[in-house]
Amino acid sequence: MSLKSFSELTQREILAIAIASEEEDNRIYATFAEELADRYPATAKVFHEMAAEEDGHRRQLLEIYQARFGSNLPAIRREDVKGFYSRRPTWFVKNLPLETIRHQAEAMEVDSQRFYVQAAAASQDVGVRKLLGDLAVVEKSHGEKANALSEAILTESARAEEGRTAHKFFVLQYVQPGLAGLMDGSVSTLAPLFAAAFATQNNWSTFLVGLAASLGAGISMAIAEALSDDGSITGRGAPFIRGAVCGLMTTAGGLGHSLPFLVPDSWPHAFWTATTIAGIVVFIELWAIAYIRARYMDTPFLKAVAQIVVGGAVVLAVGILIGGA
Known about the structure:
This protein is mainly alpha-helical. 76% of the residues lie in helices and 0% in strands. The protein contains ten helices and no strands. The longest helix is centred in the middle third of the chain and has 33 residues. The chain starts with 10 loop residues before the first helix and ends with a helix.
């Protein structure tokens, strides 16, 4: 079906689109509220109020439409009009961070107001221009109402509590799977990489082993993390995001100490140059992992060092011993 340009719309169709838009925004805000109710009850209450506001404006627009054109609404949606703003599907908000949802709601109000203002400026019909200007004012009032509701409902203590919840969610969805991936990629690839290095003393062959080990571990960890749970019970967030974070960090952890073996074999002392650089990278990786564990996982730093650095050193030594055998 071909899209209609805004200039082709009648006042009846414009009102019908406005009514449908307010109804859809009401459902989106209600979905936001439902999604946030357990994690962020204060913000959920804000979105409940905003949903009620949208429903009130829908009823006002419907009364205007019925007074002018009767009870039959034409089957036209904003998606049928060229240049009209679109809304993300409501399933997209599942397990999204709080600030992301707030920004999306803010963008909804701004997009609505901007569309009506621009459409009013482009209209040559006085009646249509007034109608679109009124709709722009309505959308602006939505944003002002949202700000007022936020100030009234999101008290300092409520914001602090939601901040703690947001931090916990960030750790569960990003830090935890990322750290697990970085640990696996950095530690599990040490043995095969350095075994290949000391067995062949060929940088290019060693790099290929490291690349294969890193990519293989990354894919495996991504799938395992994504399939571990859907986040609905544990609150660990969207499985696809966790899997992607875990897989990318696993690959990065393995590639970090594989890349030094790109030193050309034609260089003087190429093997020992690459091995020395790789060893330094391993040292940095292991201490970085220990710091992240201490910073985000409430693990005492010295304990984290003992767990990660000592463990990594043992794996590294195993790889060197096997490769040099």
